[in-house]
Amino acid sequence: MRLLRAWLQGLPAYLWSGWGAVASLLLFVAAWEAVAAYYGPLVMPDPRSAFGTLYELIQSGAAWPELAATARRALIGFTLALVVGSVLGLIAGVSMTASMMSRPLVTVLLGTPPIAWLVLAMLWFGASDGTPVFTVFVASFPVVFVGALQGARTLDNNLRTMAEAFRVPRRMMFVDVYLPHVVSYLFPAWIAALGISWKVVVMAELLSTQDGVGAALAVSRSHLDTASTMAWIVAVVGLLLAVEYLLLEPIKREVERWREAAT
């Protein structure tokens, strides 16, 4: 509750500090407008058409079921990758043998294209939620695993030895020594995995499901409806930005306040 209260209190200041991100988004929209003016609406609709189509989809109620299905699958796969990857990565990080044994496996997972896992998932799970969830999990897991492993492997032994010499309580040692260091590696990995999960789930839905943003993109592609295509892309990217900047990033800032104290 204390963390939640602090997050809510710091949210207005955090939103105000995001003017740089807003400026970059506006520059992106300006570039989008320029490309649309050059190539025409058949190739690239202008932002007004895309946002207008998205507004119509929201008003009609057609957008919410598709976005909810995509978000559910992406977040389930991401959460599984976050929990399993973090736990196994921390375990591997405290053991040199486990770390060395896991490296080739992680390389294999990172080097295998998500489309290959998607084909296997379609054979194993068919046209069910299991296909996109599994594909998201297996694509996001190695990123989280490596972040957790690096966090555990790079812990300052001198700091740990000093804490032990002063007989720091275990709880304080975990909260003030171990956790801040490991979290500084975990959160960037989690954010990268979140972006991967959103891209992969749309690709998986495009080929394997009858609902979700990916399926809606398949329909708009078959109709050569570029405005609807861009509207769905804007919707899913906006949902991703909301999850990252309204949930993960404020929590990260709150947890990493120790950096400000250290400086």
Spans of 5+ residues with little confidence (pLDDT < 50)? none
* CATH architectural category: Orthogonal Bundle
Q: At the fourth CATH level, what is the homologous superfamily?
A: MetI-like
Largest sheet: none
The total tally of domains equals 1
Please bin the fraction of helical residues: over 70%
Order of helices and strands: HHHHHHHHHHHH
- Terminal Cα span: 27 Å
The averaged pLDDT comes out at 82
CATH top-level class: Mainly Alpha
* General shape: globular
What can you see in these coordinates?
The protein has twelve helices and no strands. With 263 residues, the protein is mostly helical. It has one domain: MetI-like fold, CATH 1.10.3720. The chain is globular, with a radius of gyration of 22 Å.
What are the main properties of this structure?
263 residues, MetI-like fold
How is this structure best summarized?
By secondary structure, the chain is mostly helical.
What are the SSEs and their pairings?
Elements: H1 2-16, H2 19-39, H3 47-60, H4 63-93, H5 96-111, H6 114-125, H7 130-153, H8 157-165, H9 170-208, H10 213-222, H11 226-255, H12 257-262
Helix pairs in contact: 1-11, 3-11, 4-5, 4-7, 4-9, 4-10, 4-11, 5-7, 6-7, 6-9, 7-9, 9-10, 9-11, 10-11
